[in-house]
Amino acid sequence: MDEPNIIPAPEFLGPMTGHPTLVARFHCPLGCGWWHEEPTDPGPARLPLRPDWTIDWEAHDLVLKARDEAFRVGVEHAIAEHYRKRHPEH
Question: The whole model's pTM is what?
Answer without folding.
Answer: 0.75
